[in-house]
Structures are given as structure tokens and as C-alpha cells.
């Protein structure tokens, strides 16, 4: 190409110029950005259940069945995946079926949210590819999309109201707009909001005004300055509604906030607002900082003698209960300031709430209203002050106080009908909490609330801490709790006591195993005192006697614990009692000595040791396993820590005496008898005992503090043995009762093992050497079990081990579990073009005329075979490769040793090449083709033929020959297609009357 020569056609790729030019898809209702990208907002996607709508402009040669693939990805992705793939249908054309319409399609919200992460400023390329039926593919230029989310501003927390409940209220610098504010101007602040970004537009509606602010700092609050000129334009109204909203550069919107209502009083000039002197910079009064004192409200201005000031304090408690109070003052001295002290209880009552102060100045019959002052109230105290208890002596409530008075703190929101409760909590002599609650109904809220506590609520709790709390519940409102008054009740006095004694008919000394005795304590001067019996010395590990009340006869009985008196057998100890009041000891009695008899060996009141399950005296030692247990029932005085010894006495199979120690001075850990599994050494000794001999179990326990252990009654057994058989696996089968031979295969995971062993004995199932189950044989010595958790393609080795005798093992049996045959049995369609023309030496297959569908690897049991029900239609080889032979249908069957699967195969587009025997004009060639049933032009067959038969110079027809294509169209104007064999292929020619041999293809069926 010379320097003066340039290319006109075809155009460069992606130029958008040319006969087959394409245009990128365009989102509906997009927001064009300054960088020419298409901005997408949340509402555009949400308005249609299918997602974001796109339009695809009509393109040249648009045809029914064209395949459209739409892509959305970064431009550097080499192999992007389409986000939607569809074919054009009749709906994409006008009624004539040819004139194309603009194609509409949708990309789902899920896809867009996956492609565009939240809080990111990322553009992605959007384009499409078309695969035309005419064979001309194309790719559109790329446009850029930006889906920006989430929306600016906090999310709506309600959804049921027209405004966004999640947005913070705007903050006005003035609480009332009067003439002064109009003359001086004011500010409204929108606090920094969620997802604030540069470029956002914040809209403020202030009454009839609308102000826009474009964000330039994404971290700062938005401040709107309302100048006197702007405020002067406000329309007349009683209140100004102030709202705000924000939308971003793709028009995601937050919606409007809840309204802030500002009273609007043009022309009127209000007095200066009161000042809460103790409030901080954030207009918060901290109740804790007041230290119990009042807070002061300061009025500033010009106050003259005889001016009347009415200061109104309004507020809401933390539970939104309204309160109000008005202070009145007549000025007696001209002043620039006035001070109003507000009682501390009013501040405490609204902790967690808010207060507003306004005042009215009346001078010479004319009244003027001030601006309001607002504060919130914080504090650690509860909203109600602590009750006051009187009389107190040095900060304590004397134990002999006849009556105490409790004054409930003042409560500002108190209403008629309120219920007031007083809680009086202390501890009794056992250290347990005791609480009394009294109540009153309020009939006159102006009067103080006073409760009375008689001496019966004081004296029994001498020396104890006292907590007093009040609660108030106004009608229809929540309960309010007071702070707690923490006090102490005074101490009691000492007394002289008499020693305790045994309750009749028990006498000294006592039998530890007889009926349980009791000791009697008596104190005839008792009122509210309690008593506790004391044992000296008290054995280690025993709790002291409980603290109990005296009965109406001024007496108390203390029954002895069996464990204690058994531990004291053979001992002499001393008993006394302590007198206690309000949790403190106030005196002790003289002591009494009591003796306990020594317990003899083999006392029949103790249980015998035994082997569980042996109900008679005959012991078959061969049946014993490690699961069998030795037991001793609960015995008198059993407690943890007692030393226990258990010995077995007998004769072994060689007539040698045996003394086997099962337990040697072991400490008891429970109070519920003894259960002990037979250990391996004990099992060996038992199984080696001589059949027909006797064996004795001797159990002894150290019950007392000193001395020898006490032997329990002995247990003697007659010894017998069992017949020991080697376990044998007689059968391994599947769920259909088919035997699985040794070392064979199965595809059934439900495998059952059957066998025999000694009668009514336990055996252990081993799989690959691991124990998986324990079975007990039946009366015939048989067992059966279903194996679980078998692993595929792993040799499973099964053995049975006896859990009796010498633990004999069965001969092993093995098998391997395979996965059952698996084949994709969905229908197969072989629609690739196949043309029978002449013999060929190439090994290539016709495209899409073959498909390999083998059994899923690692499934089935070989041999696996493949068979076609009609080989004339489709042939299948031993590897599962299916080849279409003729048009038609067939079934392919895949079979292994245990099962088979079949799937349906449909073969289409199989043709035979036909060549006319003499030269024909174009019209004669068409008529010749029409005479052959189903015949088609050669146009779409040439590519498939070249794949299989090779390039056309190698075809067995004369080189340079010209053949009519028998095609009605495909060339412009009056030109028609011909084929120059080995000389240019298909091209358009104007001579329709020249005589050239025609060729075409026609379908053949199996």
C-alpha cells in the first residue's frame, strides 16, 4: 500500500463505523456523568422486579435467532463472562417480522450489587457481542457504567411514614424566630450524615424557603446561613417547618427528615431567654454536680419595682411524663438580673429528661413573653431521692426503737391516685435477706408521704444492715424508683443459758446404728432469738448444726445426723448451744458429755458387697466382662472420705489359695453406696477360680475418727465356668440378601455381618482393626449387625473378637465398597452438520456430530459397556463416544455388573452430497435441487466438509471446475453464487445462463 493510499472498508475493530456497526447498550433513565459514564441509582434498579432496564439499538442484518451476549466488567479482564445471554425473538421485530425494534433487556439487582461494591467509585465497561445467523459476528463499542450505593443519609428505621425516621433532626441556632432573629439572621446545622461524599446536594426547607448546599468536605457538618434578607421573605404562618434531605450525583436520595417545628413570631420582639447557670456548654445540667443543692435560673434585662415575674418551668421525665411549675416574684428593687433557685428534687425527678424555662414580665398591665431556654438533665442518681428514716442515734436505728418514721422524698410529677410502695430490707440471724413492703394510695399530692415501721420490724434484726427504698407509680405510667437509704440497726445484749440434754427415751451412751436421737435446747426468756447446737470436737468434714427458731414452748430440738454419730462410734464428745440474735452470737450454754458405742464387725445392719446381676449365690466366672460391676448399697453413716477396703478370698484352678485385694484403703467419693467396674486383674483372678469352689468378698470401712475399720457382712459365691467358642463370620450380605464373597466388590452401602460365638456372650465387631460395636449373642450363640460408615474404594476387613475367655478372634472376611454406576442420562442432541461425499483419510470428526459421555469416574463395577439401540442412527464406542450416523433417534445404554442406565439421543443435520450429471443454467439448477426431497444449498456445508475431507484442492473432483450453488439469494442484485473448485471458492457471478454442473445436499435417515 502506497503512502497516498488509505483503507476505506472494512473499518477498524470497535470503530463503530461500517456496514455492520453496533452501538453499546444504554441503561434506561441513566444519569450522565461529567466523565460521560452512565450513572445508576438505587431507585432505577428497584422500580422493576427484573432489575435495571437497557435498550439495545437496532443493528444492520438483525435477524430472528441472533445471539446477544452482554458483558459488564473491567476492560483489563481477558476472558469476561457475560451477565446476560439471549437470542432475538419475534417480539424484537415489527409485525412484518423483518423490521427490527429496539431490544429491551434487564440486568438483575443481584448482578449489579455483585459487580459494584458499596462505597466504591468504580466504573465498569458495558458492551455486547452478537453472533448472527448470517455468520457475521460483531462486538459493540464499550460504554461505562457506575452503580453508586448505598444512598446518602441514615436508613429509615420505620418505613411506615412519609419521612425518613433515621435522619437526625436539623439543629437551629434559635428556638423561636421573632423579629430580633429576622433582623440579625440565624443558622441551621445538618450534622454529618452517613455516607457523606463530596458532590452531594443537601436540601433544607425552612418554612417557604428552600436552600441547596453542595458538599465540598465529606467530614464536616453542613451549616446553612439564613440571612435577614432570606428570613424577610418568609410567608406569614404560626410555625416554621424545618426539614432536610440529601441526594448524590447519581440522584440517590435520603428522603426528607422528620420536621423541626420553630414558632414564628414576626414583628414581635421577645425578651432574652432565661439562663440555667449550672448547665454546661452543651446545655446539660448534671445533677451530681449540684451536691444536693438547688440550681439557679438567671433572668437578665431591665426589671423595675412592681414588675411581676412569672417564671414557668416545664419538662419531661425520662419516661416522657410532663411536669410544670410556676414561680412568681414581684420586683422590690430595680435590677438588671433576677435569680430563681430551683429545688434539687425537681432536677433529680427529671434525670434523663429535659427542662424548658420561660417567663412573662407584667408591667403596668402589659405582659411580655421571653424566649425559652432548654436543657437536658443528666445524673447517676435514680429519679426519686432516698427515703429519710427517723429517729436515728449516731446514724443507727436503735434496736429498741418503738416506731420508726420513713418520709418519702418529694416527687414533682406526683398525681392523685398514685401508688407508693416502701421496701424495708435487712438480714435475719441466718444471714438470709428479709424484705417487707408497705403501700399507700395518694389522695392529696400536696401532702408529704410518711410510712411507719413498728419494733417488730427492727428488734429481730439487731446488728444487721438496713436498706430502704421507695417507688411511685402514677396512674397509667411506669414505676419510678428512689435512691436507697443505707442504714444499720443497733446491737443486742448478753444472756445466761442452761446446758442441752438428750430427748427421752434416749439415754447415754448412744447406739450409732439405732433410731436417730435428738438433743433438746431450752431458753425460757426467748423472744426473737435463735439457737445453734455445738459439738466439740466436731469431726473434720461435718457442717455445724443449723441456726433455728425456738418454738412456742421456748424450746428447740436438734436431731442427730446418722453420718455424724457413726463417725463418733467409740467416742465421747461435748455438746452446748449458742444463742443468736440478728445473725450474731449473744451467748453460750454450759456443755454436756455424750458417749457413742463401738460398732462391731459384720453387724447385720450393714449391706453385703456383691456383683451386680448375680441374684443367687452361683457365679459363672466365664461370663464376666469388664462391663460387670461390684457394688455395695448405701450404708449407715456413709460419707465422702471414708477409707474402704475390698478383698476376694478363694481357690484357683490349681488348688492354690487366693487373696486378691480389689480396693486397698481407697477414699469414698460419694454418699450413695459403691459401684466399681471389674478391673482386668480382678477379672483374671475370678476367671481362674476353681469351678465348684467358693469365693468370698470381704468389705470393710473405717467409720470412726480412730480405731480399726469395721467389716461388713461377707458375701460368698459358688464358682462355675462357661464353654469358650471361637467367633466365626458365617455370612456377609447386601440389603438384597446377596452374599458378598471374600475379597469381592459391592455397590450396596448396607452390608450385614452374621456369625456365631459362645451362647449369650458379648463379642466386639472390628472393622479394619477398629472396634465399632459390641454385640451379645442369642441363646443359640448367633449374632448379626449392620455395618455403618463404610468408606468407598477402601478394602474393608471385618473380624469378630470375643469379649469373654481368652478374647479369641474370628477368621477375617473382606470386601470393597464401590460407588454405584453414575451416568449423565439427560437427552443428547447431535446437531452438527455431517455430509457424506466421498471417502476421506482425515481423522477429524464433523463438528458437533460427536460427543463423549462416559460413566462418572470411580463409579460402577467393571466391565462397563456401551450399546446403541439403533447403530444406523448413532454409534457408540467402548469409551462412551457417540457419533451421529443418520438423522433419527436412538438410546445409548451403559451397563456394569450391577446396574444400567439409558439416555435418549437425537441426531439431526446428516446429509448426502448430490452433484448434477451435466451443466445447467441457474434456474435449471434450482429446479434440479427442488426435485430432490429436502435438498438444501451447499452454502453451510462447505466448512464442515473442509474439516473432515480437507481443503478443496484435495477433493476428488476436477480442479478448476465451476459448480452452481443452487441458492436463491446471498448475492446483491442479479448476481448468484457459484463455486470455483480449488479456484477461489464461493463468489457471485452475473451469467445466469451459463451451464455449469449443480450440487446440493439432501438429508438421509436411519
Tags for this entry?
single chain, 1006 residues, mainly beta, Hemocyanin, Chain: A, domain 2, Immunoglobulin-like, 9 domains, seven-stranded mixed β-sheet, six-stranded mixed β-sheet, 73 strands
Structure write-up:
There is one protein chain. The chain is mostly beta strands and 1006 residues long. Helices cover 6% and strands 39% of the residues. The chain contains 9 helices and 73 strands. Strands 2, 3, 5, 6, 8, 9 and 10 form a 7-stranded mixed beta sheet that branches. Strands 20, 22, 23, 25, 26 and 27 form a 6-stranded mixed beta sheet that branches. Strand 30 and strand 31 (433-441) form a beta hairpin. It starts with 25 loop residues before the first strand and ends with a strand.
SSE blueprint:
Blueprint: E1 26-27, E2 31-32, E3 38-40, H1 42-46, E4 52-56, E5 67-73, E6 82-87, E7 103-107, H2 109-115, E8 124-131, E9 137-139, E10 143-147, E11 171-172, E12 177-178, H3 179-184, E13 186-190, E14 201-206, E15 209-214, E16 222-226, H4 228-231, E17 239-247, E18 260-265, E19 275-276, E20 284-286, E21 295-303, E22 308-316, E23 322-330, E24 335-342, H5 344-349, E25 354-363, E26 366-369, E27 373-378, E28 388-390, E29 403-408, E30 419-427, E31 433-441, E32 449-454, E33 465-473, E34 479-481, E35 485-488, E36 501-502, E37 518-522, E38 530-536, E39 548-549, E40 555-559, H6 562-567, E41 572-581, E42 584-588, E43 592-595, E44 609-611, E45 618-620, E46 629-632, E47 643-651, E48 657-667, E49 674-677, H7 680-687, E50 694-702, E51 710-711, E52 715-720, E53 728-733, E54 744-746, E55 752-756, E56 762-767, E57 770-776, E58 782-786, E59 795-802, E60 813-817, E61 828-830, E62 834-836, E63 850-852, E64 865-868, E65 874-876, E66 881-884, E67 888-895, E68 900-907, E69 910-915, H8 922-930, H9 942-949, E70 962-964, E71 976-980, ...
Parallel strand pairs: 3-10, 12-18, 20-27, 45-52, 54-60, 61-68, 62-69, 70-73
Antiparallel strand pairs: 1-4, 2-3, 4-7, 5-6, 5-8, 8-9, 8-10, 11-13, 13-16, 14-15, 14-17, 17-18, 19-21, 21-24, 22-23, 22-25, 25-26, 25-27, 28-29, 29-32, 30-31, 30-33, 33-34, 33-35, 36-37, 37-40, 38-39, 38-41, 41-42, 41-43, 44-46, 46-49, 47-48, 47-50, 50-51, 50-52, 53-55, 55-58, 56-57, 56-59, ...
Pfam families: Big_2 (PF02368)
Domain BIG2: 862-894
Organism: Pseudomonas fluorescens
Amino acid at each position: 500500500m502506497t503512502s497516498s493510499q488509505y483503507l476505506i472498508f472494512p473499518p477498524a475493530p470497535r470503530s463503530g463505523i461500517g456496514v455492520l456497526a453496533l452501538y453499546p447498550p444504554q441503561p434506561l433513565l441513566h444519569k450522565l456523568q461529567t466523565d460521560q459514564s452512565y450513572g445508576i441509582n438505587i431507585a432505577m434498579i428497584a422500580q422493576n422486579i427484573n432489575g435495571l432496564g437497557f435498550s439495545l439499538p437496532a443493528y444492520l442484518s438483525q435477524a430472528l435467532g441472533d445471539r446477544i451476549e452482554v458483558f459488564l466488567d473491567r476492560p483489563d479482564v481477558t476472558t469476561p463472562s457475560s451477565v446476560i445471554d439471549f437470542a432475538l425473538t419475534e417480539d424484537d421485530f415489527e409485525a412484518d417480522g423483518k423490521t427490527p425494534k429496539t431490544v429491551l433487556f434487564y440486568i438483575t439487582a443481584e448482578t449489579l450489587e455483585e459487580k459494584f461494591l458499596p462505597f466504591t467509585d468504580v466504573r465498569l465497561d458495558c458492551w455486547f457481542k452478537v453472533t448472527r445467523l448470517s455468520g457475521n459476528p460483531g462486538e459493540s463499542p464499550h460504554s461505562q457504567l457506575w452503580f453508586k450505593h448505598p444512598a446518602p443519609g441514615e436508613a429509615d428505621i420505620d418505613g411506615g411514614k412519609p419521612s425518613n425516621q433515621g435522619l437526625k433532626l436539623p439543629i437551629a441556632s434559635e428556638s423561636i424566630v421573632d423579629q430580633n432573629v429576622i433582623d440579625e439572621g440565624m443558622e441551621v446545622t445538618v450534622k454529618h450524615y452517613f455516607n457523606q461524599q463530596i458532590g452531594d446536594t443537601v436540601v433544607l426547607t425552612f418554612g417557604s424557603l428552600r436552600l441547596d448546599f453542595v458538599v465540598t468536605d465529606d467530614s464536616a457538618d453542613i451549616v446553612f446561613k439564613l440571612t435577614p434578607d432570606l428570613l424577610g421573605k418568609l410567608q406569614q404562618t404560626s410555625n416554621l417547618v424545618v426539614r432536610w434531605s440529601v441526594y448524590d450525583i447519581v440522584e440517590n436520595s435520603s428522603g426528607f427528615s422528620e420536621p423541626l417545628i420553630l414558632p414564628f413570631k414576626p414583628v414581635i420582639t421577645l425578651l432574652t431567654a432565661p439562663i440555667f447557670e449550672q448547665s454546661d456548654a452543651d446545655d446539660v445540667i448534671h445533677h451530681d454536680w449540684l451536691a444536693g443543692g438547688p440550681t439557679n435560673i438567671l433572668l437578665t434585662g431591665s426589671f423595675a419595682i412592681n414588675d411581676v415575674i412569672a417564671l414557668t418551668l416545664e419538662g419531661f421525665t425520662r419516661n416522657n411524663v410532663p411536669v410544670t411549675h410556676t414561680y412568681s416574684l414581684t420586683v422590690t428593687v430595680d435590677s438588671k438580673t433576677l435569680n430563681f433557685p430551683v429545688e434539687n428534687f425537681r432536677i433529680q425527678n427529671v434525670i434523663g429528661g429535659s427542662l424548658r424555662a420561660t417567663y412573662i414580665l407584667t408591667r403596668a398591665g402589659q405582659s411580655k413573653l421571653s424566649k425559652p431556654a432548654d436543657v437536658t438533665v443528666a445524673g447517676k442518681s435514680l429519679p426519686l431521692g432516698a427515703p429519710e428514716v427517723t429517729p436515728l442515734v449516731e446514724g443507727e436505728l436503735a434496736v429498741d426503737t418503738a416506731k420508726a418514721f420513713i418520709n418519702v422524698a418529694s416527687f414533682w410529677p406526683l398525681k392523685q391516685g398514685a401508688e407508693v410502695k416502701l421496701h424495708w430490707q435487712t438480714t435475719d440471724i441466718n444471714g438470709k435477706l428479709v424484705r417487707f413492703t408497705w403501700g399507700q394510695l395518694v389522695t392529696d399530692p400536696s401532702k408529704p408521704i410518711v410510712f411507719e415501721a413498728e419494733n417488730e420490724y427492727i428488734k429481730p434484726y439487731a446488728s444487721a444492715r438496713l436498706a430502704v427504698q421507695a417507688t411511685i407509680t402514677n396512674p397509667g405510667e411506669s414505676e419510678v424508683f428512689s435512691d436507697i437509704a443505707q442504714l444499720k440497726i443497733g446491737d443486742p445484749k448478753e444472756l445466761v443459758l442452761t446446758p442441752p440434754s438428750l430427748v427421752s427415751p434416749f439415754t447415754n451412751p448412744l447406739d450409732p446404728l439405732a433410731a436417730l436421737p435428738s438433743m433438746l435446747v431450752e431458753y425460757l426468756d426467748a423472744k426473737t432469738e435463735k439457737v445453734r447446737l455445738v459439738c466439740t470436737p466436731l469431726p473434720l468434714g461435718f457442717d455445724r448444726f443449723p441456726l433455728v427458731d425456738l418454738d412456742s414452748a421456748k424450746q428447740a430440738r436438734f436431731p442427730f445426723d446418722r453420718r455424724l454419730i457413726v463417725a463418733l462410734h467409740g467416742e465421747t464428745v461435748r455438746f452446748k448451744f449458742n444463742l443468736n440474735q440478728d445473725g450474731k452470737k449473744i451467748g453460750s450454754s454450759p456443755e454436756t458429755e455424750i458417749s457413742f458405742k463401738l460398732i462391731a464387725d459384720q453387724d447385720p445392719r450393714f449391706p453385703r458387697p456383691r456383683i451386680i446381676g448375680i441374684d443367687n449365690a452361683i457365679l459363672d466366672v466365664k461370663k464376666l466382662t469388664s462391663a460387670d460391676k461390684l457394688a455395695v448399697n448405701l450404708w449407715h453413716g456413709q460419707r465422702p472420705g471414708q477409707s474402704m477396703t475390698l478383698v476376694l478370698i478363694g481357690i484357683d484352678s490349681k488348688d492354690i489359695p487366693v487373696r486378691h485385694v480389689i480396693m486397698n484403703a481407697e477414699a469414698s467419693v460419694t454418699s450413695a453406696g459403691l459401684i466399681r467396674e471389674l478391673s482386668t486383674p480382678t477379672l483374671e483372678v475370678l476367671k481362674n477360680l476353681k469351678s465348684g469352689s467358693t469365693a468370698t468378698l470381704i468389705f470393710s470401712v473405717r467409720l470412726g475418727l480412730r480405731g480399726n475399720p469395721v467389716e461388713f457382712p461377707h458375701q460368698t459365691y459358688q464358682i462355675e465356668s462357661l464353654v469358650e467358642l471361637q467367633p466365626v463370620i458365617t455370612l456377609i450380605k447386601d440389603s438384597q440378601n446377596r452374599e458378598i464373597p471374600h475379597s469381592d466388590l459391592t455397590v450396596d452401602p448396607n452390608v450385614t455381618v452374621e456369625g456365631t460365638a459362645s451362647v449369650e456372650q458379648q463379642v466386639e465387631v472390628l472393622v479394619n482393626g477398629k472396634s465399632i460395636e459390641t454385640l451379645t449373642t442369642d441363646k443359640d450363640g448367633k449374632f448379626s449387625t449392620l455395618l455403618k460408615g463404610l468408606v468407598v474404594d477402601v478394602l474393608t476387613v471385618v473380624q469378630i473378637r470375643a469379649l469373654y475367655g481368652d478374647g479369641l478372634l474370628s477368621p477375617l472376611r473382606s470386601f470393597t465398597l464401590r460407588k454405584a454406576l453414575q451416568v449423565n442420562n439427560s437427552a443428547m442432541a447431535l446437531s452438527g452438520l455431517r455430509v457424506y461425499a466421498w471417502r476421506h483419510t482425515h481423522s477429524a470428526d464433523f463438528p458437533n456430530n460427536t460427543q463423549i459421555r462416559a460413566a462418572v469416574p470411580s463409579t460402577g463395577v467393571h466391565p462397563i459397556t456401551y450399546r446403541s439401540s439403533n447403530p444406523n442412527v448413532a454409534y457408540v464406542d467402548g469409551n462412551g463416544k457417540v457419533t451421529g450416523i443418520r438423522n433419527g433417534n436412538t438410546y445409548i445404554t451403559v451397563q456394569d455388573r450391577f446396574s444400567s442406565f439409558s439416555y435418549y439421543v437425537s441426531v439431526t443435520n446428516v446429509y448426502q452430497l448430490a452433484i448434477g450429471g451435466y451443466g445447467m443454467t441457474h434456474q435449471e439448477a434450482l429446479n434440479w435441487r427442488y426435485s430432490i426431497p429436502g435438498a438444501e444449498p451447499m452454502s453451510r456445508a462447505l466448512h464442515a466438509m473442509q474439516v473432515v475431507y480437507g481443503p478443496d484442492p484435495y477433493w476428488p473432483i476436477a480442479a478448476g471446475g465451476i459448480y452452481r450453488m443452487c441458492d436463491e439469494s446471498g448475492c446483491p442484485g442479479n448476481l448468484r453464487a457459484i463455486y470455483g473448485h480449488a479456484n477461489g471458492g464461493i463468489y457471485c457471478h452475473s451469467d445466469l445462463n451459463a451451464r455449469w454442473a449443480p450440487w446440493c445436499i439432501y438429508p438421509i435417515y436411519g
